[in-house]
Design a protein that fits this description.
The structure is a single chain. The chain is α+β, with helices and mostly antiparallel strands. Helices cover 26% and strands 42% of the residues. The protein has an 8-stranded antiparallel barrel. The longest helix has 42 residues. The radius of gyration is 22 Å and the shape is elongated. The chain starts with a helix and ends with a strand.
């Protein structure tokens, strides 16, 4: 009986080892497809970065709920981000914060040798002048730094999302 159990365990080990080599090839193929999709959407200026963590200027990092994001749709920026920080001059009631849709005034991009893309976006809405500094890594992870004239800066991290 013991030999039978060892025999079955050896067969299971071989099956798992065989599947893992197949899945690593599939994983590499998926990763390459993701890298191509990220690069294509960035070059087309049609992408969404979903946010999962915010880094307020004071305090600790906070996980955020699903649904917060920054979208670039050609010449338009759609910002739906939570904000914690000091505001210097805002409308009564708090204003829009970082939840707005505005035309992009300036859009600059550069890419380094490792495949990381750095994007600077300048937008003016009816409350403030904002600069979004996006760092999008080859695999789709992203960092967002938001600098505003009337608010303290804040940072976020998240990842590129496949458009539906």
């Amino acid at each position: 009986m013991r030999k039978y159990i060892y025999f079955l365990a050896a067969i299971m080990l071989l099956v798992v080892a065989g599947c893992s080599s197949l899945s690593s090839a599939e994983k590499a193929e998926r990763q390459a497809a993701q890298i191509r999709a990220v690069a294509e959407s960035l070059s087309n200026r049609h992408y969404t970065i979903g946010v999962r963590t915010m880094y307020p200027p004071r305090g600790i990092a906070k996980q955020v709920s699903y649904g917060y994001n920054v979208e670039v749709r050609g010449d338009t920026l759609v910002s739906y981000l939570p904000y914690i920080g000091r505001a210097y001059n805002i409308p009564y009631g708090g204003g829009k914060g970082l939840n707005f849709t505005a035309p992009i005034s300036e859009y600059n991009t550069r890419k380094d040798a490792k495949g990381t893309t750095y994007i600077t976006i300048l937008v003016n809405n009816d409350e403030d002048i904002l600069t979004y500094l996006l760092t999008v890594y080859e695999g789709g992870q992203a960092d967002i730094d938001v600098r505003a004239r009337e608010r303290e800066p804040i940072s976020y991290s998240g990842e590129w999302q496949q458009d539906q």
